[in-house]
DNA sequence: AACTATCTGTTAACTAATTCACAATAAATT
DNA sequence: AATTTATTGTGAATTAGTTAACAGATAGTT
């Protein structure tokens, strides 16, 4: 892992990789910065700068060798070991996001999912869906360190406390509640309504 | 609407409003910048600056009057008329996002949803779910100008072309495909995998 | 009435992110 | 061999976003 990459660069590197994985690099093994930039609707200088930051160099004429680039992005942003993710709340949203993991061969792995006490335990996409009462124990046991929260706002505070106690270090939060966590825990909030309201503002001719 | 607000400010204003709507302002009608900032985990100067940009002033001692602030945020970022949103793809993800509208009284309204030819038309949360073959016609007819795309990557290019032709001006894109649209169309991409990989990077002790 | 404490509004400083612009390079073409 | 063309790598410039700092205001306190 390469230290001190800017957050936006990390996010873009992840995007480059996903884009390149679905690119026909068997036939076309090289790609130019402007081509990749175009696919992602960003500036070519941006691509070159990001790759510079991870020390990946291309050929002045052929461009970047895709297969090698995919590997180097991995070295730059992935952890050595698999990282385990817990999903808390497996409603419509949780299901949709958890499913997205199937199409992806990253270092991230859905290690457990949880839902309400009242509902029976099930097998969800080869992963067990536990009763939330077992959450703390399971997270500890399995050494899970990332969590996706997709449950009704009401329970969020309590749940957050539990999972942070159990050792979770990063949370992707889909509720509109803002989480109370210690400094050391990294939270990424995502609220679709604010994205839509932003769209609405910027498209008002 | 107040012109030329920075994108991040628009997004934060939307967040302030949602947070304030769930705040007990009947009992506590005023709020200080640092309190609101704390609830959203941001810097108090940020709150003050954003409110300055929309020309909203508070009381030096009491703080900001919440009910008025909610209204002024509306004046700053909402359009006069209701904006109609179409959902294209009503799988797990589409359903989850569309449902989120129920809990929200913004100027945005789900006007139609669409899904594949093979599936029957249904009523989804008081909104009709049409066959995608009627999409262009319906979007034109209902003057829909925002769209949320949550369908398999395969069909995205074709669908994008159709909806842009039909008059859509802003798209919230959940697929990992990057959309080909004219300059005038505002696209907001969201890819959860890259957010998770970012989490993973920044929590690797 | 003077003093203290606190909070807003705003400027200025700072930091991060993006884009420009061009030297260096080398393939392709004349 | 000289010229043209295209592309990388990168310093510098630019732009956007965030935070610090503080004057001015005023309620509360001594
Ligand atoms: N960020 C966004 O823009 C966005 C979009 C859509 C939904 N959401 C939010 O995501 C959340 C989930 O949405 P959804 O449509 O999937 O809801 P849903 O009702 O379909 O599912 C909720 C799930 O959470 C589980 N759950 C409830 N309480 C729980 C608890 N205490 N512990 C563990 N599991 C619990 C339930 O078993 C259920 O599976 C809601 O808060 C919703 O507001 C956010
Ligand atoms: N951005 C993210 O991080 C993220 C997360 C989860 C899912 N996704 C993506 O969102 C998409 C949907 O995910 P999902 O779990 O809801 O899938 P899903 O299979 O549950 O639902 C897909 C829906 O799209 C509809 N559909 C398919 N082809 C269509 C077409 N040509 N026109 C109109 N409708 C069509 C189907 O009828 C179905 O309702 C997928 O592309 C998935 O990869 C993205």
Lay out the secondary structure:
Two copies of one chain form a homodimer.
Chain A: H1 7-21, E1 30-31, H2 33-40, H3 44-53, E2 64-65, H4 66-77, E3 83-88, H5 92-100, E4 108-115, E5 122-124, E6 127-131, H6 135-142, E7 146-149, H7 156-166, E8 170-173, E9 186-189, H8 192-202
Parallel strand pairs in A: 3-4, 3-7, 4-6, 7-8, 8-9
Antiparallel strand pairs in A: 1-2, 5-6
Helix pairs in contact in A: 1-4, 2-3, 6-7
The structure holds a DNA duplex (30 and 30 nucleotides).
A few lines on this structure:
Two copies of one chain form a homodimer. In chain A, 41% of the residues lie in helices and 19% in strands. The first copy, chain A, contains eight helices and nine strands.
Describe this structure in words.
The structure is a homodimer of 205-residue chains. With 205 residues, chain A is an alpha/beta fold. The first copy, chain A, has 2 domains: 7-77, Arc Repressor Mutant, subunit A (Orthogonal Bundle); 83-195, NAD(P)-binding Rossmann-like Domain (Rossmann fold, 3-Layer(aba) Sandwich). Chain A contains 8 helices and 9 strands. The first copy, chain A, has helices at 7-21, 33-40, 44-53, 66-77, 92-100, 135-142, 156-166, 192-202, and strands at 30-31, 64-65, 83-88, 108-115, 122-124, 127-131, 146-149, 170-173, 186-189. In chain A, the strands form 2 sheets. Chain A has a 7-stranded mixed β-sheet, covered by helices on one side. A two-stranded antiparallel sheet of chain A has the order 1-2. In chain A, helix 6 (135-142) packs parallel to helix 7. The longest helix of chain A has 15 residues, at 7-21. Chain A is globular and about 60 Å long. Chain A starts with 6 loop residues before the first helix and ends with a helix. The mean pLDDT of chain A is 93. The structure holds nicotinamide-adenine-dinucleotide (2 copies). One nicotinamide-adenine-dinucleotide sits between chains A (88-94, 114-116, 119, 132, 150-153, 155, 159, 174-175, 190-193) and B (96-97, 99-100). Chain A binds a DNA duplex (30 and 30 nucleotides) through helix 1 and helix 3.
């Amino acid at each position: 892992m390469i230290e001190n990459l800017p957050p936006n660069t990390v996010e873009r590197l992840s995007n480059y990789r996903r884009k390149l994985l679905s690119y026909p690099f068997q036939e076309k093994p090289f790609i130019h910065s402007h081509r990749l930039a175009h696919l992602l609707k960003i500036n070519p200088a941006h691509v070159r700068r990001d790759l510079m930051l991870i020390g990946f160099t291309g050929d002045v004429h052929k461009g970047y060798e895709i297969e090698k680039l995919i590997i180097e992005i991995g070295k730059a942003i992935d952890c050595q070991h698999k990282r385990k993710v817990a999903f808390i709340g497996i409603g419509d949203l949780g299901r949709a996001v958890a499913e997205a993991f199937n199409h992806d061969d990253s270092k991230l792995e859905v290690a457990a999912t949880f839902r309400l006490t009242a509902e029976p335990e099930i097998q969800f996409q080869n992963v067990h869906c536990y009763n939330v009462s077992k959450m703390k124990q399971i997270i500890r046991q399995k050494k899970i360190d990332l969590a996706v929260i997709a449950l009704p706002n009401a329970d969020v505070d309590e749940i957050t406390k539990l999972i942070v106690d159990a050792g979770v270090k990063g949370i992707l939060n889909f509720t509109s509640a803002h989480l109370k966590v210690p400094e050391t825990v990294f939270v990424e909030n995502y609220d679709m309504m604010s994205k839509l309201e932003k769209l609405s503002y910027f498209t008002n001719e």
